[in-house]
Amino acid sequence: MKHSLLVVIVTLVSLAGVERPSWSQGIPLPGITLYGVIRNEDGVTRVTSGNLSLTYTPSGGGTPVNIQAPLADLPGGFSYVVNVPVEIPVIGLTSSQNALPLPGANASYTRSASVGGTNLNFVPGQESTTLSPDEHRGVVQRVDLQAGAPIAIPEDIDGDMNVDKDDLLLWFQAWMNTVPPEYNFDNQGEIDAADLLRMLKAIKADN
């Protein structure tokens, strides 16, 4: 089971292109890998496009750390995977703005997240986290999120919170400006997915 989970995480990290920034100002350590599902306000629709903004704010005061990560349709039905950088501060140098400093003892943080300016709610109990020096070293954690308000999905052209054939047709209409009536190949009164399938079949048969 642990081996299977490791394979999934490695695959997610590889597909998401997560890597350690080369401009770290401290000594880099294995970071904290977070992954999970992000659902829209309806609690059903999975959000797979946009940019995740994740912020760790020290509970006792201090400079918040913000990490950005693109969303994607990842294996296993996940929406994101992000590496939270961790580093050992170096005397005389300012710590990197996007990295958590390695604490000498347990350190508590409040987490917040958003996509496209829309705030996300954490699974209950995961808004706050306490990290120890050991937990800063390569820990992997699943954190699911849900939007507190509707997140606009770029591909949802008609705004019904679903990406379906209607959006595809609207995209084609916008691309072509107008769809000529003669494109209604099956004479059913409207130009729809059936007509597109007939065209695709015709293209395949002609090649």
Brief digest:
This protein is α/β, with parallel strands linked by helices.
Structure, explained:
The protein is an alpha/beta fold and 207 residues long. It has 2 domains: 2-147, Immunoglobulin-like, CATH 2.60.40; 165-205, no CATH class. It is 19% helix and 29% strand. The protein contains 3 helices and 11 strands; from the N terminus they run H-E-E-E-E-E-E-E-E-E-E-E-H-H. The strands form 2 sheets. Strands 2, 3, 4, 7, 8, 9 and 11 form a 7-stranded mixed beta sheet that branches. Strand 7 and strand 8 form a beta hairpin. The longest helix is centred in the N-terminal third of the chain and has 15 residues, at 2-16. 19% of the residues are buried. Residues 5-10 and 18-24 have low confidence and may be disordered.
**Biggest beta-sheet profile:** 7 strands, mixed
Provide mean pLDDT, rounded. 80
Report the radius of gyration as a whole number of Å.
23 Å
Distance between the termini: 47 Å
**Approximately how much beta-strand content do the residues carry?**
25-35%
Proportion of residues in helical segments:
10-25%
Number of strands: 11
Low confidence ranges: 5-10, 18-24
CATH class assignment of the largest domain = Mainly Beta
| Count of the separate structural domains | 2
Number of helices: 3
**Overall geometry:** elongated
CATH architecture classification name of the largest domain? Sandwich
